[in-house]
Structure prediction request, 392 residues.
Amino acid sequence: MTPTPDSSAPHIFLSCGEASGERYGVALVRALRERCPDVILSGLGGEALAEAGVTLVARADELAVMGFTDVAAALPSLLKARNLVRRCAVADDIDLVIPVDFPGFNLDLATHVKAQGKAVYFLVAPQLWAWGGWRIGKLRRAVDRLGTLLPFERAFFETRGVSCDALGHPLMDDYLDRDVQPTMALREARLRDTATPLTLGLLPGSRRQEIANLVPLLAAVITELKLRRPDRSFQGVVSVAPGAEDAWFEPLLALGCTLTHRPLPDLLPDLDMAVVCSGTASLEASLAGVPHALVYRTSPLNYVLARLLVNVESIGLANLISDLAMVREHVQGAALPRPVVDDLEGWLDGTSRRRRFTEHVATLRHRLGPPGFWARTADSILGLVTEHIADA
Prediction:
C-alpha cells in the first residue's frame, strides 16, 4: 500500500530489483532523509529497503533472475510484478521515480512512467557501451537524468543525447577512507610465510542461477588447490549475499568451508586470495587489494547469445576501468578448476605479480574519483524533484 502523502513532502518511488541495487537503494534512502527528513518513499525492494523505511509495493526476490533463458522461464511472475509496480509508480502523488540498476526491468518501467508524465532519475547507467547500444534511443526518451558511475560513461551517453550526472562511484565511500596499504602489507606477509594458514574467499554472486553455476567450480577449485599445495593450509570462506540461502552452498560446506554474511567491506580485508564471480564484487575485491581470479559461467544458450551481443573484450569492471589486466578472467568454457588454480598459484608464488597488482589498485582508486557519492546523488535527485514540482 502506498503511504498517505504529506502535501509538503515529496514522494519518491524507488525500483530496486536485486541485491546490489537494494544495497544502493538503502544508502540513497539514508542520504535523502538527511536532506529531506519528511520525504515519502515507496517502491520495489527487499527486507533491507523495508527496514530503511521504504513502503514496499512488491518484493524484489520475485525478480531475481538473469540470462535470456531464465527470464523466459520466470516470465509470468515477472509480468505480474511489472504490472503491479507500473500501477504504483504512476500514482498521482508520486513526484519522482528512481529505477536503480536492473536495466532489463527498470528501463521498461522508466519508459512507462515517463510516458505518463512522471519524472525519472535512472541511477546506475545500463551498460549500453558493452551491449544493447540500439536501446540508447529508448533510454534517452525514458529518463530526465541518468546517474553514471564509471569514469567513461558520461561522455558515452552525453554524446548520444542523454542528460547525465557523473556521480563518481559509491564504492569509494566504502573503500577510500579505509587505508588499504597496511592491510595489503599484512596480507603480503601472510602470503610469504609458508607456515601461515591462508583464507581463500569464495564469492559466487547473489543470484540463484549464477550461484548454481559456480558452486561446483568453486568446490573443485578448493579441492584441487589443497591437493596441489599440501605445503599450505587453506580455509575457504563463502560470502553469502543478501537473499541467498545457506543450503545453496552445501557442496562447499561438505569440504569444510565456512559461510559468512558479513558485508564485503568488512570481509575483504580478512581474505588472502579469492575466487570471485564477475560483477561488482570483483571490483570491490580489487579496491580492497585482494588478489583474485575472476570467474563467470552461465547456460550455453545464454553464453552464445551474449557473445553475439557484447562488444567489449573484458568483463571485469576493474580491468575495464583501469584499462589494465589487473586480474585474469575465466569465462564459460575457460572457467575450469585447473586454470583457476593455476591463477591462484600465480598469486601465491608471484611476488612481482602482487607488486604490480598493488600499483594497479592505486590507479583504479584514482580513476573512480572522490568519496561523497551519496551526498552528490541525493542533491541531484532532490534538485530534479524541485524542478518537476515547479513545472507541474
